[in-house]
């Protein structure tokens, strides 16, 4: 428990619950909104947990994930999943370079593009439910639907084979590693990942298709190097399936843990969109949070942050701030507006948020229609959390119908 502002906490803060937050979040917001923490590497950092502070810092264009020599490392060794990976170094992280990179990608992730993709996403979700129900209950909703659906979508966008999805999952996990894999495993996996996508980029230059990698590889206005193209493919494959696959599992678990929520959606499917936003807001296993490197003195919550400080913004803690959300710990399926920070804020907000929202909405639409009697096949307390990675989630979500 937090005693005072001089306490140093280990971060990520341990949490015994699967769907409930650690008690420290509320304590920190109330007593110590700019907390002292240490990362798994042992390096010191500061932690923000209040909504206004997190939103303000994330939206401040002066600060990005750019690293300095005195920036905190998340993990020990030469693989830092947030800062020192080859992927992070190949993609411009700040300034005009980052904005230009995003501009090249934006049109593939607009609401208009998602509307075009939505019927195909629905078709795939229907097929996956067919396959899952054919095998019978109990089933793992994450493994049967939550994982393969976003993998198919991002593979379609990038123009890479869906049948390689198990490779993508392993490569992604090693890239997001905090404590699960050793340095040798990570280096070997990342070499394979890089080589795999380098081959695809070369093939797209020679024989372009109607996909994002083909467009970027052959765009005369793009100045992306091969290394940046490969890193872009890596980043989109990781972000495009890992976070959404986990969120699908967590969302279904939240709605079934208190089955009155599922019944409410069955009674009024118009609540699906706001229910998705509320699940995103209430996600307690969102992962590490967003890093900001402070290279000039700033004031936050009455404290002065010195240059050279690494600050981690906990969007998940901020999303339960009573100062920003009435009855913040309650799941209100009709909550509107819902300005949660699950996708970040400002210039570095999640590029694929329209895609994630579409996949989550389609998942709920299909499951409510096809499996109205869906329920958890194990007690909520038996759900096992993903450990040792930057992203949070549940290992499996066993269900029956």
UniProtKB/TrEMBL annotation:
Superkingdom classification of source: Bacteria
Cofactors demanded by this protein: heme
Keyword Cytoplasm: no
GO MF entries: heme binding; iron ion binding; monooxygenase activity; oxidoreductase activity, acting on paired donors, with incorporation or reduction of molecular oxygen
Pfam families cross-referenced by the UniProt entry: p450
Record keywords: Heme, Iron, Metal-binding, Monooxygenase, Oxidoreductase
Record Gene3D superfamilies: Cytochrome P450
PROSITE patterns: CYTOCHROME_P450
InterPro entries membership: Cyt_P450, Cyt_P450_B, Cyt_P450_CS, Cyt_P450_sf
Family classification: Belongs to the cytochrome P450 family.
UniProt-recorded name of the protein: Cytochrome P450
